[in-house]
Amino acid sequence: MSQDARARKDWDTYFMDIAYMASTRCRCHRRHVGAVLVQGKKLLGTAYNGAPSGVPDCSEAGCMIAEEYELAIVDGQEQMVKKQRCVRTIHAEQNLLLFTDRIDREGASVYVTDQPCWTCANMLANSGVQEVVYHRSYPKDADKVTKLMQQVGITFRCLETYEPPEVAVSEITN
């Protein structure tokens, strides 16, 4: 088959594929997340979740689980909901913001494999980006993150029909 005969990937698929490939660098057993920064059609940075440089990661020292409780509405009733998070790793979105320049982020898009958590959403809200595109939902924080993105005017899109590259798919354990 000639190169012209193959379907060319659209930009959303192309950049999300790169985010998934970045996620393969992660060594946390619970979740592999990748993120990329894009200005127009120019790739400006990639990142993944992981322990700080020089610190043992989850594959070496195990996950560092923190438990939190949050008041939530479940089936119309207020309930205390327990959340567990690995706090050994710096999230992909945080690493992306740490290793890119503010000037490059102004008006840019972030493609991230997973919907940002509350902390990452807050950081993205102040980062200068105008769009966040994700694939997998993160139900623990979904409603409040979506509301925050609306409040700050950041376009927030889920690529529901996207299929990640097979080599980059990992099981998620929560």
Description:
This protein has 174 residues and is an alpha/beta fold. The protein is built from six helices and seven strands; from the N terminus they run αββαββααβαβαβ. The strands form two sheets. It has a five-stranded mixed β-sheet with strand order 2-1-5-6-7, sandwiched between helices. A two-stranded antiparallel ribbon has the order 3-4. Helix 5 runs parallel beside helix 6.
Summarize the structure.
This protein is an alpha/beta fold. The protein has helices at residues 11-23, 58-61, 92-98, 102-105, 118-125, 142-152, and strands spanning 34-39, 42-48, 65-74, 77-86, 109-114, 131-136, 155-158. Helices cover 27% and strands 28% of the residues.
Which structural class do you get from the secondary structure elements? alpha/beta
Number of helices: 6
Which spans have pLDDT < 50 for at least 5 consecutive residues? none
Ends apart, CA distance between termini: 42 Å
How many β-strand stretches? 7
From the spread of the alpha carbons, the general shape counts as: globular
Could you estimate the helical fraction of the residues in percent?
25-40%
> Mean pLDDT, rounded to whole units?
90
β-sheet strand percentage: 25-35%
Radius of gyration, rounded?
A: 17 Å
Largest sheet: 5 strands, mixed
Order of helices and strands: HEEHEEHHEHEHE
Strand order of the largest sheet: 2-1-5-6-7
SSE topology sketch:
Elements: H1 11-23, E1 34-39, E2 42-48, H2 58-61, E3 65-74, E4 77-86, H3 92-98, H4 102-105, E5 109-114, H5 118-125, E6 131-136, H6 142-152, E7 155-158
Parallel strand pairs: 5-6, 6-7
Antiparallel strand pairs: 1-2, 1-5, 3-4
EC number: 3.5.4.12
Keywords: Hydrolase, Metal-binding, Zinc
Cofactor: Zn(2+)
